[in-house]
Amino acid sequence: MTRKLQWLYLLLALIAFVGVYFYITSAVDAQNNKVRKPRPEAPEQALALSVINAEMGSYAAKITASGLAKPRYALTLTNQVSGRVLSISDKFEPGQLIPKGHVLSTLENADLIRAVASAKNTVANAELALKEEIRQGEQAQAEWQASGFTEAPDSDLVLRAPQLAAAKTELASAKAELANALYDLNNTRLIAPFDALVVNRTLSPGAYLSMASEVGTLYSTDRVEIVIDLANSDWLKLPDTQTLLKTNWPVTIQSVDSPAQWQGRILHVGLHIDEETRMRSLTVALNNPLSQASPLIPGSFVEISLQGKSLDKLWRLPNTALSKKSEIWYLDDDSRLATFETTPRFVDEKYVYIDVPENMQDKTYQVLIQPYNSYIKGTLVKPLSTSSATGQKKGSKVAKNTPKDNAL
């Protein structure tokens, strides 16, 4: 009996073990099947970014440069003859405006007066000698003919031809000496050669001046000229030379010390490149600068603004739209990030102007206002704060060769 119970217990234990084994195996398989079951894909999250609608248009750069307003002529006056200062004009004072031909000062030189008198006497004697020689020549001609000679004499001295030529030369020389003496005497008067502003005066009444002494400085008042240097990249934004010179191309002259502003004109266009700066010069002029409502005083430091020619097929974007890598980030047809490299045509304080790629000129694109280096191409984007990049299409302020740096 005891032996049967032992076998029974053993059988029950075996059955229990088998049951536990199958239970654990089934549970593990069920868990494995649960883990291996594919999960449903989560929807892609779009990145919310601010964009701007970029529309192609025509824009013109504004080129600016600084320069110094200089008079057309700046003359250091010197006397041509020596003498004592006899008189000085009341207008020959710093700051005074004088007309062309105005007598600034008169010198006294007795030697020049005597030289004129002597030269006049020499001319009179030469004229008398010429008249006597003409008479003697006529007399010699008559005597030769009266002698019955039909041929010319062997020597022209017989008819006094050389003597007549010498007398004429003496008279011409005497007249030249008189003209020179009169010229020197006339130079005892210092005369303004053009309408001028007196900058300074250095002579005093009664002072004796030797020849070529400096007596003052005059600035012409007909116009001032401002020379500016432009790089080749700036010249590319301007029209051709003939257009600049013949079409009254707009030029604004702005004082750096006041709100005063003037409309100038292009006077000269440099046709050579400076070997050191590698730039070409352009000269701007303003007529009658001291007669303007706000006079432009010679020596003033000014800023010149030139309107550039109109450039087509450009995007005008905020400066922040251009990354440090010179890339523009935009949304493709699937609202995913895409990019292209570019070099701006010009920039100003607010905007960057770039050429639109040929394959993107058919429609408006959404461009990121401020891209970051961490962005990845192909990222899905939800555009925010969409605005238009259109607006005034001419008159951007400053044209440059390279874009401004952005804090991107």
TrEMBL record:
Lineage, highest ranks first: Bacteria, Pseudomonadati, Pseudomonadota, Gammaproteobacteria, Oceanospirillales
Residue ranges that the Swiss-Prot or TrEMBL entry lists as coiled coil: 109-184
Keyword flag GTP-binding: no
Source organism of the structure: Marinomonas algarum
Annotated Gene3D superfamilies: 2.40.30.170, 2.40.50.100, Helix hairpin bin (1.10.287.470)
InterPro entries on file: RND_pump_MFP
Transmembrane parts of this sequence: 7-24
Family stated for the protein in its record: Belongs to the membrane fusion protein (MFP) (TC 8.A.1) family.
Keywords assigned by UniProt, alphabetized: Coiled coil, Membrane, Transmembrane, Transmembrane helix
GO cellular component: efflux pump complex
Protein name: Efflux RND transporter periplasmic adaptor subunit
Region (Disordered): 385-408
A molecular function (GO) term: efflux transmembrane transporter activity
